[in-house]
Amino acid sequence: MNTHQRRPLVVLSHRVHPQVITLLSQRCEVIPNQHEDSLPAAELQRRAANADALMVFMPDRIDADFLDACPRLRVIAGALKGDDNIDLEACTSRGIWMTRVEDLLTDPTAELAVGLLIGLARNVAPGDRRVRAGFPGWRPVLYGQSLIGATIGIIGAGAVGRAVARLLRGFDARLRYSDPAPVPAAVADFLGLEQVTLTELLTSSDAVIVCAPLGPDTMHLLDRAALASMRAGALLVNVGRGSVVCEDVVAELLRLGHLGGYAADVFEFEDYSRPERPGHPHPGLIGQPEKTLFTPHLGSAVDAARLAIEQRAATSILQALAGDVPEGAANSVHQGSAIMPLPRE
Question: Single GO cellular component annotation (predicted)?
Answer without folding.
Answer: cytosol
